[in-house]
Design a protein that fits this description.
The complex is a heterotrimer of chains A (285), B (261) and C (240). Chain A folds into two domains: 180 residues, 3-Layer(aba) Sandwich (D-Maltodextrin-Binding Protein, domain 2), CATH 3.40.190; 99 residues, D-Maltodextrin-Binding Protein, domain 2, CATH 3.40.190.10. Chain A is 48% helix and 22% strand. In chain A, the strands form three sheets. A five-stranded mixed beta sheet of chain A has the order 5-1-6-13-7, with helices on both faces. Chain A has a five-stranded mixed beta sheet with strand order 10-9-11-8-12, with helices on both faces. In chain A, strands 2-3-4 form a three-stranded antiparallel beta sheet. In chain A, β2 and β3 form a beta hairpin. The longest helix of chain A is centred in the first third of the chain and has 19 residues. Chain B is of the alpha/beta class and 261 residues long. Chain B folds into two domains: 171 residues, Rossmann fold (3-Layer(aba) Sandwich), CATH 3.40.50; 67 residues, no CATH class. In chain B, the strands form two sheets. Chain B has a six-stranded mixed beta sheet with strand order 6-7-8-3-9-10, with helices on both faces. A four-stranded antiparallel beta sheet of chain B has the order 2-1-4-5, covered by helices on one side. In chain B, β4 and β5 form a beta hairpin. Chain B is globular and about 55 Å long. Chain C has a single domain, classed as MetI-like fold (Orthogonal Bundle), CATH 1.10.3720. Helices cover 79% and strands 0% of the residues of chain C. Classes of the chains: A alpha/beta (285), B alpha/beta (261), C mainly alpha (240).
Chain lengths: 285, 261, 240
């Protein structure tokens, strides 16, 4: 007990120290970096992804630093909510129960769920989601929730298999252990681009919206900075460039190479320059 | 023939009065008293399970007696305020199972007590340990570990360990009972040398030859009490108790007599 | 053929974070938790042998609780439970070290208790007969022997604990298993061959744990040999 209090005390001292020296403020950002193209870890350990680059640029604009840590998706909301981590950026759909845990920014992305199957399975969207099918989804995601609420709870007898990591669901699909995977469209498209054996048979128009999130009560006053930052990125064209770079279906290694080439812009705090260089590099033939 | 040192007996070193010890329902010691003077050697004999070992252990409080008092010189060992470690440092104990410290060489076995209990500087302690090992004839085994020694060698190291502490007396608890017959001789030889050299000893043993050679008195115990105490000559030729004679005859039959040296 | 070379390349590249982040983190957690377990376990084992009755009962209770709860559950208690109930937010690594360390202490206390009790009682008697206090007898006679007897079962504990650290990935600690999850995600996205690279990643992960277990045991074996008393074998060992 004493040691914990000591640790807590030290943490409080450290945090207040950070808060006081606002110019050098650093915040921890949690992300489940197993979800290309929004966030992933390269083989060199560097974190890439749309969400992460947006947050990096917003941080530059907002005048603070971020320290990215990789977290399991199912515990991110709790941990950001109680303040163990300051910011969450992980392709997170804004849902009523998540809003109870953490404070969300304005929506920054609209997504739908895609239904992915093996290309040669001959399934269409109706048959893929019919009774008797085994459907995979990542635990804690809106995709999993959709299958539960819109299929199982409505009497359509499918088996929902939940995975801690999205790529494991894809693996099972490829191996034939499940019939379909329900997952946000961008991630599904990225998987499809990497593996020709996969195909998307339909999109479920959930119209869900992603948001960044911070500790409940926003003690660090970050939401305003994040929302402002996003607006600035959209206005300057950097936003569009990031989309081009990440959502254009480019191969991951190409994006990584482009990122490394553009990294100097980040150190120079040149937001627009970075986004532009990244887009150019990622789409180059 | 008993030579002993009866002629030059010193003051009373050890006094035991009315020791009682009970283990559960079993009363092992039923009021045992004895006295030991400086230079005396007393050998305790008797059937197994009559409390001979318990008697020895009660003297240095390895076993705490239920009733009775023990004095070492003027200090009452059984008194509540006595520093028992202080007493034990002056009373040597040789175990039937040797109980050498397995993780130490013979030399360090002997010197450990000197360094840790008597707080002797290491150099002096090791030198003294060498001396004692030489005294029991094991100088060349100084760097051997107990597991590398024979039973007889182990027991001799054990005796050296006790001697190094310059004890006022040494208690021997069936020192040769765990040894192969061929090895008994070397240990008895050391013990005879000690007795003749004037060491104060109580020895629990079956070795009649040893008893006859050096015991000043032989104590016969049975059923938790001392039945008879007398010189070897007295006990062997005209014991007061029928039982004593019976026992001695049986022992001599079984164990024979070790030749005198 | 080309695909195989490509695959090997990717796998080779993915090793980096394993070594530079995962391995040090796993080693750090293992070392810290074993130290915690050692100190506390020694105290507990000691108390169980020599302590007064109420303390002995306390030790037994502690041991039952911490041996009876699965490692992951214990980690979550320290990580989530403390945060929710006491508003004490322990960092992830610390939660793992505390949870697994306190658990290890329970197991280690049994190792030390067994080792102390395996030393023949005559050793204690002989030490006391020389006039050593109980504390001195324990320190100079009992402990050196008990320590040697404790090494084989302790290497068992080490082997188990190394693998338990994998549970820390559930709370976001960047140790070996989490690195494997990240690497697996990345390699699965390599065009065409991605899905076939997933199993090799996990095999690599397994090899790391194997190396840690084997390496640690080798070191302990070295220690055992250096402390060996000539002629005196611990029970059940075969003389080389």
């Amino acid at each position: 007990m004493k040691r914990n209090l000591l640790v807590l005390g030290l943490l409080l001292v450290a945090v207040s120290f950070c808060a006081v020296s606002a110019a050098a403020a650093t915040f921890t950002l949690a992300s489940d970096t197993t979800w290309p193209p929004f966030e992933w870890a390269g083989t060199d350990g560097q974190f890439y992804g749309f969400d992460l680059d947006v947050m990096r640029l917003v941080a530059i604009l907002g005048g603070y630093e971020i320290n990215i840590v990789s977290y399991g998706f199912d515990i991110i909301f709790d941990d950001v909510g109680i303040g163990r981590v300051d910011i969450g950026a992980s392709g997170a759909t804004i849902t009523p129960d998540r809003v109870l845990k953490a404070d969300f920014s304005a929506p920054y992305w609209t997504s739908n769920q895609a239904v992915m199957v093996k290309a040669d399975s001959g399934l269409n969207i109706a048959t893929a989601l019919s009774a008797g099918r085994k459907i995979g989804a990542q635990v804690g995601t809106t995709g999993a929730k959709w299958v539960q609420e819109q299929l199982i709870d409505k009497g359509i007898n499918v088996e929902l298999r939940e995975y801690t990591l999205y790529p494991l669901a894809v693996l099972d699909l490829v191996n034939g252990n499940i019939d379909a995977v329900v997952q946000d469209e961008p991630a599904s498209r990225a998987s499809m681009a990497a593996d020709a054996r996969l195909g998307i048979v339909g999109v479920i128009e959930t119209g869900e919206q992603f948001g960044f999130f911070v500790t409940k009560g926003d003690p660090n006053g970050l939401l305003a900075k994040i929302n402002d930052g996003v607006q600035q990125l959209k206005a300057s064209g950097a936003w569009a460039n990031l989309i081009t770079a990440y959502m254009g279906g480019a191969e991951l290694s190409k994006i990584e190479a482009a990122w490394k080439a553009a990294a100097s812009f980040l150190t120079a705090k040149d937001v627009v320059g970075f986004a532009q260089a990244l887009a150019t590099g990622a789409t180059a033939p | 023939m008993a030579i002993g040192t009866g002629a030059c007996l010193g003051e009373v070193i050890l006094r035991v009065e009315g020791l009682h010890k009970r283990y559960g329902k079993d009363e092992v010691l039923k009021g045992v008293s004895l006295e030991l003077r400086r230079g005396e050697t007393k050998v305790v004999i008797g059937p197994s399970g009559t409390g001979k070992s318990t008697l020895l252990r009660c003297i240095n409080q390895l076993t705490v007696p239920d009733k009775g008092r023990v004095w070492l010189g003027d200090a009452e060992i059984t008194h509540a305020r006595t520093n028992i470690n202080h007493i034990r440092a002056q009373v040597g104990f040789v175990f039937q199972d040797f109980n050498l410290f397995n993780h130490l060489t013979a030399l360090h076995n002997v010197s450990l007590g000197l360094i840790k209990v008597k707080k002797m500087p290491k150099e002096a302690a090791l030198a003294r340990a060498h001396e004692e090992l030489a005294r029991v004839g094991l100088a060349e085994k100084a760097c051997s570990y107990p597991a590398e020694l024979s039973g007889g060698q182990k027991q001799r190291v054990s005796i050296a360990r006790a001697l190094a502490m310059d004890p006022k007396l040494i208690l021997f608890d069936e020192p040769t009972s765990a040894l192969d017959p061929e090895l008994i001789g070397e240990v008895l030889e050391v013990m005879i040398g000690l007795a003749r050299g004037g060491m104060t000893m109580i020895v629990v043993s079956h070795e009649m030859g040893f008893a006859r050679a050096v015991a000043d008195k032989i104590i016969f115990m049975e059923g938790g009490t001392i039945l008879e105490e007398g010189t070897p000559t007295e006990l062997f030729t005209c014991p007061r108790c029928e039982r004593t004679g019976q026992f001695l005859r049986k022992i001599t039959e079984l164990y024979g007599e070790t030749s005198e040296r | 053929m080309e695909a195989t070379i490509g695959a090997t390349n990717v796998l080779w590249q993915s090793l980096g974070p394993f070594f530079s982040r995962g391995l040090p983190e796993t080693v750090k957690i293992t070392a810290l938790l074993l130290c915690l377990g050692l100190v506390l376990g020694a105290v507990l084992g000691f108390t169980q042998v020599y302590g007064r009755r109420p303390f002995r009962y306390a030790c037994v209770t502690y041991e039952q609780i911490f041996r009876g709860v699965p490692p992951l559950v214990m980690i979550l208690v320290f990580y989530n439970g403390f945060a929710r109930s006491f508003h004490i937010m322990l960092p992830a690594t610390m939660s793992a070290v505390l949870a697994l360390g306190l658990r290890s202490a329970a197991y280690q206390s049994q190792i030390f208790r067994g080792a102390i009790q395996a030393v023949p009682p005559g050793q204690m008697m002989a030490a006391r007969a020389l006039g050593m206090s109980k504390l001195k007898a324990i320190r100079y006679v009992m402990l050196p022997q008990a320590f040697r007897l404790a090494i084989p079962p302790w290497s068992n504990e080490y082997s188990g604990v190394v693998k338990d650290t994998a549970f820390a990935c559930a709370i976001g600690v960047a140790e070996l298993t989490r690195q494997a999850q990240l690497a697996m995600t990345r390699v699965s996205m390599v065009p065409d061959i991605g899905s076939r690279l997933i199993l090799p990643i996990f095999l690599i992960l397994g090899m790391f744990y194997l190396a840690l277990t084997y390496g640690g045991n080798a070191l302990l074996g070295l220690l055992e040999r250096r402390l060996r008393i000539p002629g005196f074998e611990t029970k059940g060992k075969v003389e080389r």
